[in-house]
Amino acid sequence: MTEKKDSGHWSLKGVSWDDLKPGTVLTKKILEKLYGALWKLKDYEDTGLSPEEVERVNDFEKSQTYRAIAELQEEREKHRWIPVTERLPEEHDSIFTRLNGTEKWKNGMFKRRSDNVLVTVKYEDGMVHTESAHTTDGVWKTDYKVKGGKVVAWMPFPEPYK
Description:
- By secondary structure, the chain is α+β, with helices and mostly antiparallel strands.
- The chain has helices at residues 28-47, 51-58, 64-78; strands at 2-4, 10-12, 82-83, 91-93, 112-114, 117-122, 128-136, 139-142, 150-155.
- The strands form three sheets. It has a five-stranded antiparallel β-sheet with strand order 3-9-6-7-8, with no helix packed on it.
- A hairpin with a 2-residue loop joins β7 (128-136) and β8 (139-142).
- The longest helix is centred in the N-terminal third of the chain and has 20 residues, at 28-47.
């Protein structure tokens, strides 16, 4: 409805200030532009909003809709399949960590372990399935030992039903 010139001055789109000088005959085109601007002003006034309230409504990043979308994206991020090429689940120290480097350290012990997660396993023949698995020292440990299977993605388990 308005436009800002390179000089910083603003005007009604399609109407120069010269067209509005006292004594200038208003053409039908200019009258229609003025009427349209007044109609928009009336619509604004009918909202009952102050100029500050209009600014808040127009500031999308401060809106409830923006916050709701951000929360949904955060939830979606928590419950999406994560390619193993992107990252592995976070690991924590195992109960055996303190034994590492001592004579009590045995084969089969591990320093770090992730929580159980859902994984997608893809096999050489193209078959794909989902199962529970975890990592120990960065290596996947799946429930089913089938040759040729490779974990390609994972996601945390959802919260239990309440």
